[in-house]
Design a protein that fits this description.
Layout: H1 3-16, H2 27-38, H3 45-54, H4 62-76, H5 86-94, H6 100-109, H7 114-124, H8 132-143, H9 147-157, H10 160-163, E1 171-181, E2 184-185, H11 186-189, H12 201-205, H13 211-223, E3 228-234, E4 238-240, H14 245-255, E5 257-260, E6 263-268, E7 271-274, H15 280-288, E8 292-295, E9 299-301, E10 319-321, E11 330-334, E12 339-341, E13 347-350, H16 357-365, H17 368-385, H18 408-416, E14 417-418, E15 431-435, E16 438-441, H19 443-455, E17 467-470, H20 481-497, E18 500-501, H21 516-523, E19 530-533, E20 544-547, H22 550-559, E21 561-565, E22 569-575, H23 584-599, E23 608-614, H24 618-627, E24 635-640, H25 642-661, H26 670-687, E25 703-708, E26 716-718, E27 736-738, E28 750-753, H27 760-777, E29 786-789, H28 793-802, H29 805-811, E30 812-815, E31 833-836, E32 855-858, E33 878-881, H30 884-893, H31 899-906
Parallel strand pairs: 1-3, 2-4, 3-7, 7-8, 16-17, 16-19, 17-18, 19-20, 22-23, 22-25, 23-24, 28-29, 28-32, 29-31, 30-31, 32-33
Antiparallel strand pairs: 1-11, 5-6, 9-10, 11-12, 12-13, 14-15, 15-21, 26-27
């Protein structure tokens, strides 16, 4: 059987799924296509020609390499294909986005045939995805006196690759489609349980919202062929939760436009909107595609004569509709005047934030990547020619307030800024191009990141990046056929690209499935670092971390840079004393509740939360920063004390050394470099040369929140409130309730201790509770299943050494075995303790889930509909979030405990302790560390 006949078999299979032929990435298959194209009498010639032209993936895929080589032969006259004239071959090369295509174009442009060289040069002038090796060739040719090279460089210095593109339309007609009421999680657009298909864009597109919704969108497009469909989160925020480039890809697939006629299923320029706008991480993802994200503000709070919001019986503000965006409403986006208008021309809302000069550039260029690479290319060309680059791009907004101090995030951005006016100090609102120190890629978006790297023709990690890690945690629960097909391929690509990988393609070390955020938290060894990770929970307790889409991760890996505005900050401090029976997770929940009480609205949304954590070590502080993703914050920064930071860095060093000892180091000695960097940072702190990061006393904040620990007297639970009469109030993280609200009566069907929200201390708490209950009752019986998934293998090793794993094993009815991992996802649970493989487990929702309709009490972060538990026909699934001791006790009781039962159960147990930082820190650290 040839590769081509195998491909035909796959095509027939896909036809049965209603799918087109899968785009080709294998160079060997393209070589067979070429052989059949050159054979005039071949029965497959016509189809092979079609696949070659329209169905071969661009970038650095092996398929692109073979295609570019053959197109070059056609241009040189070494091969003749009547259907592909040299001019058409040049056009095809121009759509291949760098890598082999740029290499071929440079060969032609710097070759001896003057006519061909000039044609190749004209195509090269439209390209932006050039890398160091490509630029070096142009530089050398220019210095050797090559006129063609000089012409290309002059064009680049004028940024003609951008200026000659069509301007965006002054007016964009849209027709509305309400995807859902309330906050729309990216799970609705790209469900976690379909993560395996994300790199197959057409197949994955079938999972967006529902088949019925897809049909309704198609019907709107047929009724309004001259308009774009605008996807809306009515009474909510669009794109909360995970970043999900796949979600934006799906929206673009159904409502956007094709990026290139020669690249199937890659669409760009979607239009999305929300009553409360677009979540920060999702907005960045929309920018990647050159899309538009609009804050509709179509529902506002009803106010009384005193100007204060009028509340309903539940204490929630009553909303009034300013204007309707019901499905099928025709609107006009006036891009020139930056307003949204109805059919009569009436202005509805100012949308200037969606049309900043930078965003307009992304729209014009078809996405933010082209702008990032274009600016770099222009700078290179101008420097090579010894001239100033032509002012083309919107200047970075540089906001500086004389006499005003810097917040912690402003300090980090100023330290890492690139291309700033010399001597200029930047404050919030400034646009900044910054160096990225640490990058993380996770396994369910990693395949897309690999695709993005191939598409932008990147072949190796930027030397600017201190360290990067590819995880295997999101697919840790079940080693099924999908994982077996995807993960080894991903690990091989990323390992070759220069990342530290959880799985060794050569099989030298044991496959790790440690939760990515925990690993990134360890390999971040500088509190002044900027971290980019392919997950919304990239929220480190050292430095400032931004969760990002797979494309932004790819860009950071390839260039070592990111571009974003400096966010505003909200300062969070603490007062009072933490009760001995409370866990730090309750402080996290209380922060959200007290913030809403103090501010009346979520002031965290879209901003950086600067939490003055002081004496809490990095692992425990991460519980707070991790949660900030659910507060819709842009990021979070921990302001720590010197000795605490030093101890956290020492712990990080020891864990990096464990990675080295396991054989995870690469040829670049990345891990050794991180240990050296940690040592230098510790020395700076100890010498007083550079203390732990802290804001200036006269820094300016958007708001300041003071959390009163004295008010936290019982465990707090984040409730999805699935039956709230107001749909927009369901599945948000704003409903925080004390445990007494449930009166010890709420049935719990499953407990889950795991995800990135827990640390070693949490698993020790499980062990301690089992020991205490066994001592008091003789044995422990579970009235509901309890699933425990430690975040890392290190935790399990340490628990075994300290004697805690024994009690967990004693009561477990299932314990993971890496030699024989599960091959199918569990669909039913017994009332036992399950010790699962380290990783995300139920929190991810792509493999394991609770039984439909269950009420789950979990330590995780995800309470969105269908994520941890799907609805049953007769009952909605609920995912309530609480501290570890509450979850454990609820699984044992089969219900939520009363406050008294809880206090009795945790008496004498070492919970995660915390007290506000003092001038002289006291010993407030948990005994677990």
């Amino acid at each position: 059987m040839s590769l081509y006949t195998d491909y035909l078999t796959e095509i027939e299979t896909r036809k049965g799924q209603g799918l087109h032929p899968k785009p080709i990435e294998d160079g060997a298959l393209v070589a067979e296509l070429i052989a059949q194209i050159e054979d005039a009498g071949n029965e497959y010639r016509s189809d092979s020609l079609n696949f070659f032209i329209y169905n071969t993936l661009p970038g650095t895929t092996s398929a692109a390499g073979v295609k570019a080589t053959f197109l070059k032969k056609i241009i040189l006259g070494e091969a003749v294909v009547p259907e592909i004239a040299p001019a058409f071959a040049f056009e095809l090369l121009s759509h291949m986005k760098g890598g082999p295509s740029v290499e071929a174009l440079l060969d032609l442009a710097l070759g001896e045939d003057a006519a061909i060289a000039q044609q190749a040069a004209e195509v090269l002038k439209t390209q932006v995805f050039l890398y160091d090796a490509d630029m070096a060739r142009l530089d050398a040719a220019f210095k050797a006196g090559n006129a063609v090279a000089k012409g290309i460089l002059e064009s680049y210095a004028r940024a003609e690759f951008f200026t000659k593109l069509p301007e965006i339309e002054d007016e964009i007609k849209v027709v509305t489609y309400i995807a859902a009421e309330g906050d729309i999680s990216t799970d609705l657009l790209s469900p976690g349980n379909q993560a395996h298909s994300r790199s197959d864009r057409e197949l994955h597109g079938q999972c967006m919202i529902s088949p019925e919704a897809q049909a309704e969108i198609r019907a709107l497009q047929q009724q309004h062929p001259d308009k774009r469909v605008m996807l809306i989160a009515e009474k909510g925020t669009m794109g909360v939760g995970s970043s999900r480039m796949s979600g934006v890809n799906n929206v673009a697939l159904w409502t956007g436009r094709q990026a290139s006629p020669y690249v199937p299923f890659v669409n760009i320029a979607p239009v999305v909107a929300g009553t409360n706008g677009i979540s920060p991480i999702f907005a960045t993802t929309v920018d990647v595609t050159g899309g538009i994200g609009i804050n509709l503000k179509n529902w506002v709070r009803k106010t009384g004569e005193d100007g204060k919001p009028i509340l309903n019986n539940d204490g929630n503000p009553i909303l009034e509709q300013k204007y309707s965006v019901e499905t099928g409403t025709v609107l006009t986006i006036d891009a020139k005047n930056r307003t949204l208008r109805d059919e009569s021309g009436k202005e509805l809302v100012d949308v200037a934030a969606a049309f900043t000069p930078q965003k307009v550039e992304f729209m014009k260029a078809g996405g933010s990547y082209a702008i990032v690479f274009g600016k770099k290319l222009q700078t290179f060309a101008a420097e090579t020619l010894g001239i100033e680059p032509t002012p083309v791009f919107a200047p970075n907004k540089e906001i500086s307030h004389e006499g005003q101090g810097l917040t912690a995030v402003e300090k980090i951005f100023n330290r890492n800024a690139v291309g700033v006016t010399p001597g200029k100090v930047l404050h919030a609102g400034s646009d900044a191009r910054v160096r990225v120190n640490i990058v993380g890629s996770q396994d369910t978006t990693g395949l897309m990141t690999a695709q993005e790297l191939e598409a932008m023709a990147a072949t190796t990690i930027s030397p600017l990046v201190d360290g990067a890690y590819q995880s295997g945690c999101h697919t840790a629960s079940v080693w099924d056929k999908k994982a077996q097909a995807n993960i080894p391929k991903l690990m091989a690509f990323m390992n070759n690209f220069g990342l530290i990988t959880a799985r060794d393609p050569k099989g030298v070390y044991h496959a790790m499935t440690d939760v990515i955020h925990k690993v990134l938290n360890d390999i971040t060894v500088d509190d002044w670092a900027i971290i980019i990770g392919g997950d919304s929970h990239t929220r480190m307790s050292k430095g400032v971390a931004f969760g990002a889409d797979s494309g932004t991760v790819a860009l950071a890996l390839a260039t070592g840079e990111a571009t974003m505005p400096i966010p505003e900050s909200v300062k969070v401090t603490f007062k009072g004393s933490m009760q001995p029976h409370m866990d730090f997770r309750d402080v996290v929940h209380a922060t959200q509740a007290q913030m809403l009480q103090q501010c009346g609205e979520n002031v965290f949304q879209g901003r950086v939360i600067e939490v003055h954590i002081g004496t809490l070590l990095a692992d425990q502080a991460f519980t707070f920063t991790d949660w900030t993703a659910e507060m819709k914050a842009k990021a979070s920064i921990c302001v720590s004390q010197d000795e605490t930071l030093i101890e956290s860095l020492e712990i990080a060093k020891s864990r990096i050394q464990i990675m080295i000892d396991k054989g995870m180091e690469n040829e670049a000695r990345t891990l050794h470099g991180l240990i050296d960097k940690a040592d230098r940072r510790i020395a700076e702190i100890r010498s007083g040369e550079k203390p732990a990061l802290a804001p200036d006393a006269n820094a300016k904040y958007f708001a300041e929140v003071v959390v009163d620990l004295d008010l936290i007297d019982e465990p707090m639970i984040a409730d999805p409130d699935v039956n709230n009469a107001d749909v927009s109030k369901r599945y948000t993280h704003d409903t925080i309730r004390p445990i007494s609200h449930y009166g010890g009566q709420k049935k719990v069907d499953l407990g889950f201790v795991g995800s990135c929200m827990v640390h070693k201390g949490d698993v020790k708490i499980v062990a301690q509770m089992l020991k205490n209950l066994e001592k008091a009752q003789g044995k422990v019986e579970f009235k509901a299943p309890l699933v425990v998934a430690a975040p890392t293998y290190n935790i399990i090793d340490e628990l075994k050494a300290e004697g805690d794993w024994d009690i967990l094993q004693k009561y477990s009815g299932f314990e993971f075995d890496d030699l024989f991992p599960k091959s199918t996802a569990r669909t039913e649970y017994e009332n036992i303790l399950y010790l699962e493989r380290p990783g995300c487990n139920l929190c991810m929702g792509n493999q394991e889930k609770a039984e439909k309709g269950d009420t789950v009490l979990a330590t995780s972060t995800r309470l969105f509909q269908g994520r941890v538990v799907e609805d049953a026909a007769e009952k909605k699934g609920e995912s309530l979030l609480a501290s570890t001791p509450v979850v454990v006790l609820s699984a044992i009781l089969g219900r939520t405990p009363s406050a008294e039962e809880y206090k009795a159960a945790v008496e004498g147990i070492d919970l995660t302790r915390f007290s506000p930082p003092l001038e002289k820190p006291e010993a407030t650290r948990s005994v677990h560390f």
